[in-house]
Structures
1.
Amino acid sequence: MSPQSSPSLGVTKELCSWIHGLRLDDVPESVRTRAKYLILDGLCCALLGAHLPWVEKAANAIFAIEPPGNSVVWGYDKKLGPLPAALLNSTEIQSFELDDWHMLAPLHSNSILLPPLLAAASQKKSNGSPALDGAAFLLSTIVGYETGPRVGLCLYGGHMLTRGWHSGTTFGHAAAAAAVSKLLDLPKDVIEDALGIACTQACGLMSAQFGSDVKRMQHGFAARNGLFAALMAEGGYIGIKNVFEEPYGGFLSTFGQNSGKEPPYLVNELTKGLGQTWQSDNIRVKSHASMAGTHCTIDAVAKLQKKHPEKLADLRTIASIKIEMSEAAFKHGGWKAERPLSALGAQMSCAYVAAVQLVDGQVLPQDFHQDLLDRDVLWALVDKTECFHTPELGEKYEQRVTLAFEDGEVITQTLAAPLDVAPGLSNEEILEKFRRFTKGIVDDWRRDEIERLVLDIENVGDITDLEGLLAGRTANPIE
């Protein structure tokens, strides 16, 4: 489905027209199917993260300041209003760096989309509106999968990380507003208001990654604020018109300032290929519990372990570790890790996760238990590691890991991309991840029912049935 072109139709209105007119039958079956598996992965991450220490800290603080409401807090026996519920449920999805990311315009779509969509559905039902069905939920999620990355591509995607912006939080407000607007079936001019209200709230500082708790919550700001924007627009509140292309104080002109690119931003990326090129094809799912930019490091180390098992049998013989990467990956994950380190800082550090892979042979949630973060064997390796920006490796995922040994031998491995990117996890592998990571976190019957409902979601009559399955206590995976 292509938007109508008109000399007076700017990209914001063009996007809104497409969002309003899109129907589930317009979406290829492969895209619809993939979206269901992506949704399942997002819920897996939420169930896994609900009772991690830093999430419980956020939950306890929010429960203390917010009154009860109608929206389920996943993994708890509590309900809040839609806005705090969206914020907290998003924090759960983002809690352990295991959730999806877009490989061209980095953002974690599920943490931005699933919480506000389900919160909006429960709020509407509590107000006496007809139940919103699974087909509408699926279509709205796909709208969000399309919108967020397109906003990011307008700003050169990962280049925003290089500049110090938390890219997903910056791109994500519009995605949440677009998705909720679609779920509420808002007219296209009201969708434009929602986008205008959402975009004026967008921000996110990448310095949050250096050990703060707030890194886990920043995508939740986009989820909450995008939901707020759509609900305000539904109530008649007027947002910024033409918010993306407005030359003075518009979203792209403002965030594109001093980008170092020519042109500073790419306005046409917002609507380029709408209904023909599906951005969900570029959403990837993680198999390692760490920031996406560290995954090539992990996979390169794993390949060296497979090729040289005898050489790596005694890690004390390693004299130095050199990790080379692109500029964005270097600024995101190549910083010098120092002891002591929080779980968040550890998950953001290429040096630290390389050590974890060398010692544990994996990088999974249990490897970041508080009692394991300060192991001498890890820090001996971290202290021998240096990270470098190597321009000839390009601007994407390519990395090189080189290990030098005390006997003078050197082994090296270069990868163009991590396995999570090329080829990426299949639908079957996502399902296996869901089953494996939720084992023991929720009862088997509950896990199986969530799986059944999500994979048949277009036939669900009331999407709040899904939230009912997400309610109730879940286990802490690192206890």
2.
Amino acid sequence: MLTVDFDRLGLRPGDRVIDMGCGAGRHAFEMYRRGADVVAFDQDADELAGVLELFGAMKEAGEVPDGASADIKEGDALSLPFADGEFDRVVASEVLEHIHDDVTAIKELIRVLRPGGTMAITVPRWLPEVVNWRLSPDYHNAPGGHVRIYTDHELVDKVTKGGRPNDGTPGDAMVFEGKDHAHGLHTPYWWLKCAVGVDNDQHPLVKAYHQVLVWDIMRTPRLSTATRLAEKALNPVLGKSMVLYFRKPE
């Protein structure tokens, strides 16, 4: 279940890319399949171990082209252990809403992106997220949970200004290149979970809706066309994730 459109990001075989806050690795795996030189970065060692194992399985199964490479790196988003301009593409999907000092994290993402490189940042969309927070404090109060709700204007402003030094001297600013929304089918599901209890996975309506999402992810033939059309219609209005694309000036 991908959130980022890699064609829009401009990903090409041989690009060096970082998936910052990779989690279970869904975007890292797709970039590896497309022939990139991938670094899956996270602070969770257990998650990274699983990602590394699947990287190896993909290689053995012949799912990646010759020349593609992939590795993991554990560390802190506020101090990325990489050189300035090391990456051609940067992905940070569903990460910044968890980080208290998001401005520093954004500056680090910009620092490691080469001039001319592109970045995709995804966060929960404002309206679906506001409803979730109001329906259930447990949705965001869990350890490591969401600490803020972004509007598109706030996040665009933070990223486009993130390349400027704190001393006020001129510096490179990121260029905003566009916005998408994704996962429209997931918004009603989370509203339902928050209404009945975020941990109440055995509620009949939650179980039924979850099965529809599983069918969609697995592309079950008898439902995939209907769910694709439904999600395409819902994304502009209720897409749970907001996807922002940026370019670093040459």
